[in-house]
Each structure stands twice: as structure tokens, then as C-alpha cells.
Structures
1.
Amino acid sequence: MKFIIRWGINAVALWAAIAILPGLVYAGNWVGVVMLALVFGLVNALLRPLLELLTCPLIILTLGLFTLVINTLLLAVTAWVGNMVGISLTIADPFWWNSFLGALIVSAISLLLGLILLVVIGEGHPSPAGF
């Protein structure tokens, strides 16, 4: 159940980023966005731990801001893999900034929806420190 909720959150976040940012060009319907969210989840599950481990000193040195660069890279990889499997998400020029802003939008909306669903489902109010 948790997987399906996370998948839905990713789908809504990706759809919002595509709708808000003109540099993310998507030619397809909502089913493609849902499939792209699955690709996004798989890319995050497989590559994020490795990238965070390899860049741990940079993450610590930048007080966590380097995770934005990791998110940017993961969105670009998602677009690349999506294009390979027939889901047409194109990141227009300037590539880096559109990837960065897209990843920022996806991260912010995913965080917001995750917190809202955490409270609505009834797992309690999240505390700022995570305790």
C-alpha cells in the first residue's frame, strides 16, 4: 500500500513539474505520467543510495545542498530512461537549469503531499525533528 501511495505522489509531483515548468516537455497522456513516475521511483531506489554514499563528503560540506544536485541528476536520468522505453519527457535547453528547477518542484510537491497524507491517514502529526 505504501508503494502505491508513493507512486501516486511521484506521479502528481511529476505532472505538476511538467505543468509548471515550460522547460519540461511531455507529449503524452496521464498513463505515461504514471509510468514515468514508476521509472522515477525505480531510478531513485537504485541510484540515490549509491550517489549519496559516493558524494557523502560533498553533502556534509554543503550542509545537504548537494542533494539538490543529486535530485537534478536523477530527474535527468529519469527522462533519459523514459525516452528509452517510449515515454517522451524532454528536458529543453538550458538543460541544467530546467532539470534543477524540475527536480526542485518534484521534491517540494512530494514532500508537501507526503506530509499531508501522513497527517490525513492518521499516523500522527510529524514533528520537525522526526521524533
2.
Amino acid sequence: MSSPHPNLLPGGEKEERWRPVRTSGLPGETAALLKTKSVYDQPDDSDGVRVLVTRYWPRGVKKEKAAYWLKDLGPTPALIKDWKAGKISWGDFKERYEAEWREGDKDRLLEELEGIVKKAGKNNVTLLCTCREEAECHRGILREKLTGC
């Protein structure tokens, strides 16, 4: 039985959103699991290194909730505004976010994020954002860029 909510399993349990990240060229060698979650979700030991990837620091969230803050990996304020106002579809959001990658310095920031993953070693890395659901959040796009799927 499937849940009507994309991130909830039947019975209301949250589905873990993670993918293995290969940090070397050796086939099958993975150092960490790359997870995503809302910064408002309760931290747990399986989060490992927590990386906030939002443009603005979220209200009411203490600085110790994230080990790193890569704010420029978040969408631009104009893109956030259009998305939250309902002016663009999720497909349009993804296209514009991808365009921001081509026009900006996000590749350097992605390399910085890859460095954090490598430094984490066998520890998990969790990408955090204020969005409650990954299905329509840029952190899912970032995870795809890091994992290649």
C-alpha cells in the first residue's frame, strides 16, 4: 500500500532519503551516505555531518544545527520568490536553478561540498534546507549532482 504523502511510508513513518556517494575512482567504494532532510526535522546520530544549503539562515535555528553553511548553493532570491509565490512550476524551477549553475560559481561550491563529503570519510552527510519535502526542493537536485543519479 502506498502512502498519499510522497515522503511517508504507510503507517506515517518518514522514508529516509539517502544515496551512497562514491568518493574515489574505485568501483563500489563508498565512503558515506548522502541524506537530505529539513533543518526543522529533529537531528539524529545517523545525520553525520550536517550541511545547510539555503540562501538564508532559517529563523529560530541555532548555529550548532549545521556544521557547514554553503548559502550560495541555494537558489537566488528571485527564484525562491517566484517558486513560493506559485508563479512557476517545479519543472520551471529546476530549469532556472540549472541555469544558475551555468551562469554562476556553483561548480566551485559543489567541489567544496564534495570536499566536505570526502573529509567526512565513512560518516554520513546530510544536506539541509527549510523545505519540508525533498520532492520539490533544490537539495534533491544537489544530491543528484553529487551522486550522479
